[in-house]
Amino acid sequence: MFGLIGHSTSFEDAKRKASMLGFDHIADGDLDVWCTAPPQLVENVEVKSATGISIEGSYIDSCFVPEMLSRFKTARRKVLNAMELAQKKGINITALGGFTSIIFENFNLLQHKQIRNTSLEWERFTTGNTHTAWVICKQLEINAPRIGIDLKKATVAVIGATGDIGSAVCRWLINKTGISELLMVARQQEPLALLQKELDGGTITSLDEALPQADIVVWVASMPKTIEIDTDNLKKPCLMIDGGYPKNLDEKFQGENIYVLKGGIVEFFNDIGWNMMELAEMQNPQREMFACFAEAMILEFEKCHTNFSWGRNNISLEKMEFIGAASLKHGFSAIGLDKQPKVLTV
């Protein structure tokens, strides 16, 4: 059995979802009420692979909302309580989605293994980052040529290069794609230097320097709302892959021959029959999902019950190749520009 731990994109969305599910006592509450609300198992689903294998899974809403990010103890408690619930339900492998994964890593929740009477078994959980990194790389490889970008001549910038997903994308680009140049951008210079040494390649640069040079920009870190971008200085055509969370590139990059693609999203080959993706702003919520969620499903299909994606900078090319092959085998595909609601042009 697989599990998915997620959350709503905002407090208002969370209240609407709670009302739809009949949790009126939570839906009518203020943020303080939501801070004390326990996680809820809101949906069970059966999924059949393209190979014919059927598995069962559950979606757990952590009752976390982004407005709680400034409340460290609340955010930590929400994620750990949701993990405890998944384990108590006997779920073999559970993916941490959205901010739950970010909170787990950034707040170092590995030191909080004991939750009341439950000792969390880490092998039951995965961040899903390996599959997300592989999907982003496939989106780059497939969609760049569609808009006239030759990968052999392309300069690719990775924003957030030292993170778990960002570093994995850099490894793949250097070793698997034959791109002309890799530009690496991150806030901290020391990890960048270590990554450059590991890769024996790539150029460390700033965001302002990278954007005008890049044919393709992979955003693994979500763009701050305060940043202003002059799109006239970008190369044309330019492919922007929005691999961060929350996804907000389309608010900044609009212009002729600028293509914004939602990164780390996959489409299943068949309708699933669930409701959980309805509020996730998916173009086709019966088939599309975050790649991190799909990783838990793939691992259950493969009976690979282990914390496949765990810790920071542990994603290898071998793991990416394994999860990628399994993803295709079971009926997942990376969404492309043809699946976007529109191409952003003026």
TrEMBL record:
Any one GO MF annotation of this record: oxidoreductase activity
Cofactor(s) listed in the protein's UniProt record: a divalent metal cation
Keyword field contains Oxidoreductase: yes
Keywords from the UniProt entry: NAD, Oxidoreductase
Assigned EC number: 1.2.1.80
Catalysed reactions listed for this entry: a long-chain fatty aldehyde + holo-[ACP] + NADP(+) = a long-chain fatty acyl-[ACP] + NADPH + H(+); a long-chain fatty aldehyde + holo-[ACP] + NAD(+) = a long-chain fatty acyl-[ACP] + NADH + H(+)
Domain Quinate/shikimate 5-dehydrogenase/glutamyl-tRNA reductase: 149-260
Physiological role: Catalyzes the NADP-dependent reduction of long-chain acyl-ACP to the corresponding fatty aldehyde. Involved in the biosynthesis of alkanes, mainly heptadecane and pentadecane, by producing the fatty aldehydes used by aldehyde decarbonylase.
Family the entry assigns: Belongs to the short-chain dehydrogenases/reductases (SDR) family.
Descriptive protein name: Long-chain acyl-[acyl-carrier-protein] reductase
